[in-house]
Amino acid sequence: MSGPDDRPGRTGPGGLAVCAPLRFEARAVRRGLADAARGTGGGTRGAAGGAGFEVLATGMGARRSRAAAERLRASDAGAVAIAGTCGGLAPGLEPGDLVVATVVIGPDGRRVSCPAAPLLAGQLRRAGLRVHEGPVATVRGLHDAAGRSRALDRGAIAVDMESSYLIEGAAGRPAVVLRAVSDTPRRPLLRPGGMAGGVAALRSLRLAGPALAAWAAATSPREVLLAGPRSFCAGVERAIEIVERALDGSTAPVYVRKQIVHNTHVVSGLEQRGAVFVDELTEVPDGATVVFSAHGVAPSVRAEASRRSLDTIDATCPLVAKVHAEARRFATDGYLVALIGHAGHEEVDGTLGEAPGAMTLVQTVADVAALEPADPAKVAYLMQTTLSAEEAGVILDALLERFPGARGPGSDDICYATTNRQQAVRAIADDADVVLVAGSANSSNSKRLVETAERAGVRAYLIDDTGDIELGWLTGASTVGITAGASAPPAVVSQIVAALSGLGSVQVGERVAATESIRFGLPKEVRQS
Ligand code: SF4
Description:
The chain is built from 19 helices and 20 strands. It has helices spanning 23-38, 61-74, 117-126, 145-153, 163-166, 195-207, 209-218, 234-248, 264-272, 299-307, 318-332, 346-352, 365-369, 389-402, 416-429, 444-455, 471-474, 490-500, 524-527, and strands at residues 16-20, 53-57, 79-88, 98-105, 111-113, 131-138, 158-160, 175-183, 222-228, 254-257, 275-278, 289-292, 311-314, 336-340, 359-362, 379-383, 434-438, 459-463, 479-484, 506-512. It has four domains: 16-217, Rossmann fold (3-Layer(aba) Sandwich); 222-230 and 417-512, 4-hydroxy-3-methylbut-2-enyl diphosphate reductase, catalytic domain (Cobalt-precorrin-4 Transmethylase, domain 1); 234-317 and 521-526, Rossmann fold, CATH 3.40.50.11270; 319-402, Cobalt-precorrin-4 Transmethylase, domain 1 (3-Layer(aba) Sandwich), CATH 3.40.1010. The protein is elongated, with a radius of gyration of 28 Å. By secondary structure, it is an alpha/beta fold.
């Protein structure tokens, strides 16, 4: 199927070479990339980092693909994409769905990994396309039933006839494999109405053009600067271990009030192990076991649990419990306690609940000005543990200016983990073109890391995982800083680094601002489990 116009070499050094087996597949991709260059169909301008792109109709099957791979190997393209249609194998795949290969499996079982898959898949999803990530296997022919069966056994979610040969031609350059489902076992291509699947697949290939262009534009060798410390703190590790031990030691359901820590991956991992997350105790059956989250609870929640005869296990971080104790002490001594924090955060709700009549939330300098203590000589302040030191400092200065004798906690309420992670992100911000902060949208300390990096003058983005990374953030970024909030699993950082390696060679360094060795003991209820 390849012809004189389909030979690589006109891409321009560093450009994107797209291998599409059939001419109509090549045409769909070419139109999609042209849409991207015009800024239509998704809004990404300038395909392939400005170095141009070339779409090659490389021909169907093993022989033509091997020959095309040889030509590709000799070309000066900077990045390689393999795009075309495929047969869907896994349940849930429908004609028109896109498949981004995480691994390409050859007919002989040889596997080539595609680390950038989550980045491309995320970009496609944000464009509104239905996308699946997983292994794609190359089979010997359209009717290779044995090959399809082997592919399924090897974990493939889709099959094609070329990718495993073509990807060899990438020869270490950044490469992705993007396939659009034309048929599935339920909707075979060579049956009446089957061609509609092919049409849907070609339409999806065209719509994928802007994401493909964005991927190519982001390809480049780069440096990755990791902030140290990052990721789990002692309070989060303890809270997760408490739930795991409670699950291991119980045949009955284990309920957890609120997210145990503010991270979607942690919560879904524990859900898969059997934990049942609820918002309120009313959702917990009488007599059941319930774990209180790391953010702490108000005494009224404990009282309700006791009244309902619930078995409670308290995963409140000891450093949050310390703030609760301070609140009780100041309130008992007749102080008005100003809690510096953010409204609606579970930790703040729990702390305020210790002495509702004696405490008030202060979020801004204006809130300080509005304080009306019965006795200005009896004002105390406390802080949410996960605040930005700078932000809290401004409010505290205003409070001390108005109430010079205001009493504070014996030791800082902003915890060691928050402080260390903010110092660490500052240490990488100066040298990074962009900072990625792993953490969920409701994670206070993760959001503060974004703000801290931004205050240091660098673009910073909060991402739950690799799939949230907008490829445009990385275009032209030769140094990417990475950190993670105290509730974000370390594995997410490893996955981000791995995905970046799919955009070009990556040199990883770490700036360690502090070392941590703190561990907290477990509550008695789970010590023996
Ligand atoms: S961030 Fe600080 S207060 Fe929160 S769980 Fe971790 S150590 Fe405890």
